[in-house]
C-alpha cells in the first residue's frame, strides 16, 4: 500500500524541481534497510529527527530523484514536509481501516480452526 502526493514547492535534485512523490506503507523491511544501509550515518540514528528522516527516506520515492537521503528529507521546506506528514497520516489511516476490515471479515467467518471450514468452504463440506 502506498500514498501518492505532490510537494507544493518541490525537492531540488540536480537542478530540477521534483514534486511528485510516493510514500510506501511502513514495514519492518524499511527499518532493516535503514540500519543496514551503508549511506546511513548510524551514529546519527540516536537523534530522533535523523532517525525519522532515515525511515522516511527508506519509504519515499520522488519522481526525478534516483536516491533519497535522510538529509534530503530533513531539508524539505515546511510546506513540503507537511505534505509528506499528511501523506503518512492518510496512509496509516488507510492501513488501519484495511486491517479492521480484514479482522471483521475473519470474525464473520468461523475459519478453519473453529469449524474446519476456510473462506469459501462451508462446514458441511469439511471432512468428506
Summarize the structure.
By secondary structure, the protein is α+β, with helices and mostly antiparallel strands. It is built from five helices and three strands, in the order ββααβααα. It has a three-stranded antiparallel beta sheet with strand order 1-2-3.
Inertia-based shape: globular
Instruction: State the oligomer.
Output: single chain
Give the structural class: alpha+beta
The count of helical stretches stands at 5
Largest sheet: 3 strands, antiparallel
Average pLDDT over all residues? 84
Query: Which sequence of SSEs, written as H and E, runs from N to C?
Result: EEHHEHHH
Order of strands across the main sheet: 1-2-3
How many angstroms does the end-to-end distance come to? 39 Å
* Unreliable stretches covering 5 or more consecutive residues: 113-128
Alpha carbon gyration radius:
21 Å
Percent helix, as a range, is: 40-55%
Strand content: 15-25%
DSSP strand count: 3
Label this structure with key terms.
single chain, 128 residues, alpha+beta, three-stranded antiparallel beta sheet, 5 helices, 3 strands, globular
Characterise the protein shown here.
- Helices cover 48% and strands 19% of the residues.
- With 128 residues, the protein is an alpha+beta fold.
- It has a domain of 88 residues.
- It has a 3-stranded antiparallel beta sheet.
- The two termini are 39 Å apart.
Tell me the layout of helices and strands.
Layout: E1 2-13, E2 16-24, H1 28-36, H2 48-59, E3 60-62, H3 70-74, H4 78-108, H5 111-115
Antiparallel strand pairs: 1-2, 2-3
